[in-house]
């Protein structure tokens, strides 16, 4: 059996067999069931047409010559109702004109009776290869998401597991969500993932960054305006709330919203109606709001800079995205994710990262969070000449962290004080420092230091470290 045929065992294919010769249909079904096909039999044309209307099939095998509804009618029906399915026609003679008509009508291939079982299996195998590929990709992507993330939100740290759990529960609802986190921690990515997993996903996701807009333009961006509503408003404009109707509006940097606009936004959220600037007509809107901020909105509210009533409306559910330095376990996963992304985009292949470069990426503090890590990986690939990403491809502030001195110690400022000290003191210093950086996570510390976990454990005990 060919590799392709073995593949049929892994991803089941649903096949409809339309044939008024009952014994023949059974024989076809039996030989395909042995290669993991799920077979349904229709012993007449009308029954076949009815099944095509009501069920999903990947491949349809139909006899050409049948009373009432013949094979050509089944082919037409299949092309209308199940355009992704492939149709194989069976005929007693390959030369008859209806075979030509069937091929012109979009049949995948034809087989002559009596059937050769190998040929039948091969034809079904080929006809279903596209659909199996799509399924395999979907299940791979799903598997990856389930293990390490949710809709492109990658993370394997306990804090990201909590975030992903939260996302899975709240995405399908209509709840307003407030996402908190430093710049570059993935707030917009998370907002998109919420939208993508909600019943609104076929409607627009509309992002608006409040801080990027001067106060005078913000309200017209949000609510729209009529022609002549203010100087410069020559034509009418539809606002983001209207654009997002049926979908999700993502308001980034919501903490920057001026007080006047805050009142208007609150009213819209309460009444679910908007009025374009310069108009008296109210329009009903159905929008899910997701807001984000890197400010401490709660303390802004307590200080009176942000309205309390609006704060409580926005923060029905709050998601906190921790900075990358507090979830270093996610760094290796993110590195691999971005390497794959950029290699694919740039049509490149790289051997991977050297240990020293990886150590530098693991020890850096990432003030710009995941966006900065992503940019660094992109930059490293752009700089790289030899297909191996090493410290020479790192930006300067990181190269210092990865530069190995002759005795293998991590270089960088502050290390000179260790020169002349006994080696075990130096080792103790570095283990303590690495533990500090990882927040005491041993697995990650071991990776960072390039030593086995058991060795690390022994040394922690030996040096009396916590
Ligand atoms: N968990 C993650 N997994 C994969 N990619 C991520 C993750 N978090 C962020 N990113 C990527 O990092 C970049 C920055 O993310 P995003 O724009 O969502 O951050 P942000 O918090 O909205 O930033 P800002 O506050 O500056 O608007 C994007 O390219 C995003 O795809």
Automatic annotation (TrEMBL):
Pfam families attached to this UniProt entry: AAA_lid_14, HTH_8, Response_reg, Sigma54_activat
GO BP: phosphorelay signal transduction system; regulation of DNA-templated transcription
SUPFAM superfamilies with a match to the protein in the record: CheY-like, Homeodomain-like, P-loop containing nucleoside triphosphate hydrolases
Gene Ontology MF term list: ATP binding; sequence-specific DNA binding
Record domain Response regulatory: where: 14-128
Nuclease is among the record's keywords: no
Keywords: ATP-binding, DNA-binding, Nucleotide-binding, Phosphoprotein, Transcription, Transcription regulation
InterPro entries membership: AAA+_ATPase, AAA_lid_NorR, CheY-like_superfamily, Homeodomain-like_sf, HTH_Fis, P-loop_NTPase, Sig_transdc_resp-reg_receiver, Sigma_54_int
Modified residues (4-aspartylphosphate): 63
Residues annotated as domain Sigma-54 factor interaction: 153-382
The keyword RNA-binding is assigned to this record: no
Protein name: DNA-binding transcriptional response regulator
Gene source species: Thalassoglobus polymorphus
């Amino acid at each position: 059996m060919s590799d392709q045929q073995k593949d049929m065992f892994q991803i089941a294919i649903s096949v409809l067999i339309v044939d008024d010769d009952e014994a023949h249909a059974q024989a076809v079904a039996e030989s395909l069931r042995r290669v993991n096909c799920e077979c349904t039999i229709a012993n007449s044309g009308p029954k076949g047409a009815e099944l095509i209307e009501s069920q999903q099939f990947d491949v349809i095998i139909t006899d050409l010559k049948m009373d009432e509804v013949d094979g050509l009618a089944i082919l037409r029906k299949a092309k209308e109702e199940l355009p992704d399915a492939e149709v194989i026609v069976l005929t007693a003679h390959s030369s008859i004109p209806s075979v030509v008509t069937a091929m012109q009508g979009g049949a995948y291939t034809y087989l002559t009776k009596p059937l050769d079982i190998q040929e039948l299996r091969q034809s079904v195998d080929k006809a279903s290869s596209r659909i199996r590929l799509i399924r395999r990709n979907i299940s791979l992507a799903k598997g990856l998401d389930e293990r390490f993330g949710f809709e492109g939100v990658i993370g394997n740290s306990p804090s990201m597991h909590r975030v992903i759990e939260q996302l899975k529960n709240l995405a399908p609802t209509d709840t307003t969500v407030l996402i908190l986190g430093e710049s570059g921690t993935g707030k917009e990515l998370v907002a998109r993932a919420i939208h993508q997993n909600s019943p609104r996903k076929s409607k627009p996701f509309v992002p608006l960054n409040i801080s990027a807009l001067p106060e005078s333009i913000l309200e017209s961006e949000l609510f729209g305006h009529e022609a002549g509503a203010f100087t410069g408003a020559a034509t009418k404009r539809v606002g983001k709330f209207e654009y997002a109707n049926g979908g999700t509006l993502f308001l980034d940097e919501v903490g920057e919203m001026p007080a006047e606009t805050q009142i208007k936004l609150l009213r819209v959220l309460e009444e679910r109606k908007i009025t374009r600037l310069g108009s008296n007509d109210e329009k009903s809107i159905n929008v899910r709001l997701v807001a984000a901020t890197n400010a401490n909105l709660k303390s802004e509210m307590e200080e009176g800079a942000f309205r309390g009533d609006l704060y409580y409306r926005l923060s029905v559910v709050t998601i906190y995205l921790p900075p990358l330095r507090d979830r270093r376990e996610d760094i290796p996963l993110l590195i691999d994710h971005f390497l794959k992304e950029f290699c694919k985009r740039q049509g490149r292949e790289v051997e991977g990262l050297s240990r020293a470069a990886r150590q530098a990426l693991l020890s850096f503090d990432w003030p710009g969070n995941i966006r900065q890590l992503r940019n660094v990986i992109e930059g490293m690939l752009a700089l790289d000449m030899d297909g191996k990403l090493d410290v020479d491809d790192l930006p300067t502030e990181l190269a210092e962290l990865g530069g190995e001195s002759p005795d293998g110690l991590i270089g960088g400022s502050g290390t000179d004080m260790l020169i002349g000290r006994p080696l075990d003191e130096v080792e103790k210093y570095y283990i303590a420092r690495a533990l500090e950086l990882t927040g005491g996570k041993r697995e990650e510390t071991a990776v960072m230091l390039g030593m086995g976990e058991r060795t690390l454990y022994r040394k922690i005990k030996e040096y009396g470290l916590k």
